[in-house]
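Work Package 3 (structural annotation) set out to generate three-dimensional models for the target panel prioritized at the project kickoff. During this period the team completed the workflow that converts sequence records into discrete structure tokens, so that structures can be stored uniformly alongside our sequence database. As a representative example, we reproduce one entry of 174 residues exactly as it appears in the project archive.
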Amino acid sequence: MHELILNEAHYARVLDRVVPSAKRFLWIATADIKDVHVEGARGKYIPFLSVLADLVKDGVEVRLIHAKEPGPAFREDFDRFPVLIESDRFERILCPRMHMKVFIVDGKTAYIGSANLTGAGIGAKSPRRRNFEAGILTDDEGMVEELMEELDRLYLGEHCSDCGRREHCPDPIV
């Protein structure tokens, strides 16, 4: 399956369907990250961090790699979900060179595209305030495996020792 995802469809396909389907693991890479809210029970909007916290509570391992420190609204919401701080199932890495926008679910499905994990990027803002975004949702085993290998190399810090941006990195892995 290869499915083109455009504009606000990112929200419906990626955040609303693909992410909650994770049973074993969810890996997210994004350049920018903000305090995104998604529709929860009975139409009430909740922080996306709540979705991640629920996944972690259900035994799903979550990796989040992003390029810059999130703003105060994200940090405030993050602190409301202690499971994200305390659990070994949630790992967050900051890499100033990260520019990928990738979601990988259970090693079977991947989103690759332009949308950052922000309301404007992922289509969670009003139609007049959203970004124009494009991406592909795929279950192609080769593509998913190659993406996982690259994210694993980043996660393990294979690029850190020879990184030309190390002086900008607040927390080098190696």
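The chain is about 30% helix and 25% strand.
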